[in-house]
Every structure is written in structure tokens, then in C-alpha cells.
Structure prediction request, 108 residues.
Amino acid sequence: MSAVHVAGTVALWLGLATSTGFCIAYHLTAAWWRNGEGRHLMSFTATVALILGWLAYRSMAAPPPPTTGEEVGRTVVYSVVAALMIWRLGLLWRRQIRRAFHRDGTDN
Prediction:
């Protein structure tokens, strides 16, 4: 197994963990079902988590493919998705969760 394949697999699992973490945190901290924006954020992120979960399952259940040029593309795609999910979870933390820990309501 090549280093590029391992990096792609790590990015895949990181994206799965952060998208799932976002759904859990968002559900616990917001009434997301009350407006269209919240429903969209939750349904889109849950769909990403579902897709990444299926891909993670397949990465564990299927034998690794032979190393080809597709490995680089796979790694790039999974890395971009993981970075975006980390960003989304960070935004949730900054705008909703962290604010709940500050009694004075400031956005520090």
C-alpha cells in the first residue's frame, strides 16, 4: 500500500469523523429543524457523512486497488472534503457552541 493511498484513507476517515461530529454537535446545540437553512446544513452534512461512511466501509472491506494515477485524485478529493468538514465544524464551534460557554455573550 502506497503512502498516497494511506493519506487518502486517513483523509477519508477524518472527513467521516468531522462530518459526523458536526451533525451531533449541531443537533445538540441548535434547533436546526425550525428553518430551511438549518435543515439544509443538517441534511447536506448528514448525506456527506453517509457517503463517506460507505466509502470508509468499502475501504476496509475491499482489497486495496493497485496503485494508479487515480490514487492522487482520490487523495485530493478526500482531503478537500475533510478540510471542508473541519472548517464547517470550526464555524459551528465559533458561532454557536463556544458562545454558549460565555455568559456575557461576547464572541471571543
